[in-house]
Amino acid sequence: MTDKRNAQARRFALAAAEVAAGRHCSDIVVLDLRGKSPATDYFVIATGTSDRQMRTVADEISESARECGLQRFGRAGYEQGRWILLDFIDVVIHIFDGTNRDYYD
Questions:
Q1: What is the spatial distance between Cα 87 and Cα 72, in angstroms, rounded to a whole number?
Q2: Per-residue pLDDT tens for 18-71?
Q3: Residue 83 host element (H or E)
Q4: At the top level of CATH, which class does the domain 3-104 belong to?
Q5: Whole-angstrom Cα distance, residue 104 to residue 52?
């Protein structure tokens, strides 16, 4: 990964965490997986309070990505609102409800 691409991924991961914090998610973690995972460079993990709030956070993170010129390559769990996964290749976002966060901790 180039330095420029890595810097963009890091900025986006931190921006996604800020969106989650601004929408009152808890237990927000940004994990730097460079050199540890062949799949992605950063995980952002957050716990939401309701399915509606979690979808709002996912929507705002997706909008933030578009503004940064990043494309979302996948989204899962959005309709159920228990564990929403957003895949931006270099950054993967996980937004859990409390029950699933505890289970997958």
A1: 6
A2: 999 999 999 999 999 998 998 999 999 999 999 999 999 999 999 999 988 899
A3: strand 83-87
A4: alpha beta
A5: 21
